[in-house]
Q: What sequence folds into this?
């Protein structure tokens, strides 16, 4: 309800309307990254090798289950969903992948996967799957035709292998209707070979969005990975007073870069927060605000909305609990609503206004909109003043859209921002027309009319009681 109200207020106030995900460029997307086996069990028909007490075993999630819970993702306003490795493999992590066509029978059938992808597209969600391009299983057609080392790594990545792989992946795209693919196990591919593979695939599927799980120097990837930036995000928000700052890097960032606090193949940051005796919901709200308001592609691992925990990577990939407290779900939805509805937040200019002692203020602006984002990642109350000249001659006010804060111009021509410890706010800058007198009069009239109504009702009630004595 809160998310829907925020969206309504934003649209009515700022005249902005959501854009279809497929109409957005790749760098405008927001991504929800899940593992099919650990998301939702929709049917018992494919429950084999299931052991909920063994983090290395299958848990029973399937294509039917993901399809049943797409609304959960939609409510958080994500535009893109990565389903992970859905192919026949040796385990739920997708190791030793045997095919780009044959689906993992623990997850369901080819028909069920096609139905899921179709439903995602019907719901205006971009469907993405993982395609490992190295260390494939011995039964994979490419492995049979090209030489590898004992552990499955290609001995030579030549034109023949690149062409054959492009053909196999394109066949999968055509069969299942993928909008995008994420290439994994790319570490041993040089940039030129990876660029050739992507060029060949896009020659046959020119609208295909291509991303990689690992960082690469290939320059034709649509959404790119930056390992150092992910680590800096992690180190900045793992605790308050971290002394680490990621914001200087944002002024020159490639807008195609994924912004992540943790990854689905890494240790959950919630675990580390707890180890440091931090309060995860507060830590996550601080981190997520930066994630969605900074330039780049926000990417969130499934389970973040419930602060999923785990001492190891596998233990951190728990079966999603849809019955637990989901305070962060609404918060993510609010942030995504702002980002989806604002061209400026997605593509506008970025300017760092203040960044000192774990207190950061930055602007996202364009000719049409101006936003001020405040992130206090410290354990003290902080203050920062923005001079009137920042916003030109026109008198404005800063209206907080997350916590309903309101800042007006002071007598000394400053906009004074005061932020409590571990608090964030996103301010929309709008013309300050003073108090809305007609609105105030109307509100008073409604209040007076209600009082008069109660008076008449009570008076008539007393008369009726007196007449009946």
A:
């Amino acid at each position: 309800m809160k998310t829907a109200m925020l969206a309504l207020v934003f649209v009515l106030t700022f005249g902005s309307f959501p854009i279809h995900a497929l109409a957005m460029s790749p760098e405008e997307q927001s991504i929800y990254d899940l593992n099919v086996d650990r998301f939702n069990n929709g049917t018992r028909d494919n429950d084999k090798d299931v052991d909920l007490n063994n983090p290395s075993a299958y848990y029973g999630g399937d294509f039917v289950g993901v399809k049943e819970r797409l609304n959960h993702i939609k409510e958080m306003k994500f535009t893109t969903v990565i389903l992970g490795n859905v192919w026949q493999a040796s385990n739920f992590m997708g190791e030793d992948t045997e095919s780009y066509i044959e689906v993992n029978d623990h997850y369901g059938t080819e028909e069920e996967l096609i139905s899921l992808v179709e439903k995602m597209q019907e719901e205006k969600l971009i469907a993405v799957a993982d395609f490992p391009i190295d260390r494939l299983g011995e039964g994979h057609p490419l492995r049979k035709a090209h030489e590898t080392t004992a552990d499955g790594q290609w001995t030579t990545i030549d034109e023949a292998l690149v062409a054959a792989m492009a053909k196999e992946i394109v066949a999968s795209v055509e069969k299942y209707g993928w909008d995008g693919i994420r290439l994994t196990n790319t570490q041993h591919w040089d940039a030129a070979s990876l660029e050739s593979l992507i060029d060949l695939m896009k020659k046959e599927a020119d609208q295909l969005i291509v991303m990689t799980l690992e960082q690469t120097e290939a320059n034709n990837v649509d959404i790119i990975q930056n390992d150092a930036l992910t680590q800096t995000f992690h180190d900045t928000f793992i605790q308050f007073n971290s002394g680490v700052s990621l914001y200087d890097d944002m002024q020159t960032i490639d807008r195609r870069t994924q912004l992540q606090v943790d990854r689905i193949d890494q240790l959950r940051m919630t675990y580390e927060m707890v180890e440091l005796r931090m309060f995860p919901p507060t830590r996550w709200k601080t981190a997520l605000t930066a994630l969605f308001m900074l330039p780049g592609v926000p990417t969130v691992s499934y389970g973040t909305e419930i602060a999923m925990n785990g001492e190891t990577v596998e233990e951190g990939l728990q079966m999603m609990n849809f019955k637990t407290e989901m305070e962060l779900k609404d918060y993510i939805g609010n942030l995504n609503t702002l980002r989806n509805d604002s061209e400026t937040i997605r593509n506008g200019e970025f300017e760092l206004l203040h960044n000192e002692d774990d207190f950061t203020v930055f602007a996202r602006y364009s000719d049409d909109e101006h936003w001020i984002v405040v992130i206090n990642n410290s354990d003290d109350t902080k203050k920062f003043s923005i001079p009137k000249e920042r916003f030109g001659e026109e008198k404005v006010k800063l209206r907080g859209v997350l916590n309903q804060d309101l800042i007006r111009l002071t007598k000394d021509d400053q906009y004074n921002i005061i932020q409590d410890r571990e608090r964030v706010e996103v301010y929309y800058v709008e013309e300050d027309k003073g108090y809305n007198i007609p609105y105030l009069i109307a509100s008073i009239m409604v209040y007076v009319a209600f009082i008069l109504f109660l008076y008449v009702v009570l008076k008539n009630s007393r008369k009726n009681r007196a007449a009946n004595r």
User: Anything to note?
Assistant: The first strand starts at residue 31 and ends at 33. Residues 1-18 have pLDDT under 50 and may be disordered. The CA atoms of residues 148 and 154 lie 4 Å apart.
